[in-house]
Amino acid sequence: MGTRNRPLSKESFKSEIWKYYSSHRRAFPWRETKDPYKILVSEIMLQQTQVERVMHKYGRFITRFPGFSALAKADLQSVLQVWQGLGYNRRAIALKKCASRVVTDHAGELPKTVSELVRLPGIGSATAGSILAFAYNIPTPFIETNIRRVFIHFFFPERNDVKDSEILPLVEETLDREDPRQWYYALMDYGARLKSKTPNPNRRSAHYARQSPLEGSDRQIRGKILKALLSHGSTGEQALIDEMGKDPDRVRRILLAMETEGFLKRSGGLISLA
Q1: What is the DSSP string of 211-235?
Q2: What is the phi-psi region of residue 97: left when phi exceeds 0, alpha when psi lies from -120 to 50, beta otherwise?
Q3: Torsions phi, psi for 113 (to 5 deg)
């Protein structure tokens, strides 16, 4: 898995990926199911979140909200309580809204086309492609971080600023159309291994960006506001501002944004979870 000096042929590439996967396949609970709901939950959780953190929450979430109907009917506070610790809480709201749309617009069945899936909250083209592959074994080209890492490593060994538009045709050309589900698992497992064994190829992607530090960020304040409301229930704006210990105008701006996004609501001078 060292640094490559020249691209590999597509057939040699596929052979190497399958060979590695045959003896290094990772086991995750979401890989042991073909249930579209459970796969959707895992894909949303895995967005920008380490696998280890998802492992701690996935089973509990599925137990509490076992299907689209249960999640759609749940109150937001219950969903956010289970979600706590995963971060990027917008995803929890989007997932709940998605479940409601699946129930009301699709008779409780997750759609089987990219065009329909991307119209649902929280689902972009990459997530749509992964759902089609993992839930329905439909061969659909998509790129996520591990897949991007693998293709840059093998096909762009000495290039910087590699665009996804250059990678996607290679993903389609090498896609195993008989078993896309296992092929993508194999690519992801190889990509995860690459990260620990070589200088991260994704740093040579045109789309690479370091995650901003949490400490002192708006994201951290949002998390603290959410935690306070989960703990206290309804509370006044000034009490929240005082508890945050940050610039009042900044906290008010964040509160307004969270209200607009559907996290919070105001009633009788009090703020609570929506």
Answers
A1: PPPSTTSHHHHHHHHHHHHHHH-SE
A2: alpha
A3: -130, 150
Burial (CB < 10 A; 0-12, 13-18, 19+), residue 101, is middle
Q: What is the CATH number of domain 35-136?
A: 1.10.340.30
Q: Which two tokens stand for residue 255?
A: 């509160």
Kindly give the pairing relationship between strand 235-236 and strand 270-273: antiparallel
Phi, psi for residue 165 in degrees, rounded to 5: -65, -20
Q: Of 226, 156, 204, nearest to 5 (Cα)?
A: 156
Query: Is 11 marked active-site?
Result: no
Helix ranges restricted to H, 65-163:
68-73, 76-83, 90-105, 114-117, 125-136, 145-155
Model confidence over 197-251: pLDDT tens digits? 889 999 999 998 777 787 889 988 998 998 899 888 899 999 999 999 999 999 9
What does pTM read for this prediction?
Answer: 0.86
Pick the CATH number of 10-27+140-204 from 3.10.450, 2.40.128, 1.10.1670, 1.10.3470: 1.10.1670
Please report how the helices 164-174 and 10-24 are oriented relative to each other, as an axis angle in degrees rounded to 10. Answer: 80
pLDDT in tens, 61-100: 999 999 999 999 999 999 999 999 898 899 999 999 999 9
Q: How far apart are the first and last CA of the chain?
A: 49
Catalytic member of 16, 43, 109, 172: 43
**How far, rounded to the nearest angstrom, does the alpha carbon of residue 89 sit from its chain's CA centroid?**
11
CATH second-level architecture of 218-273? Orthogonal Bundle (1.10)
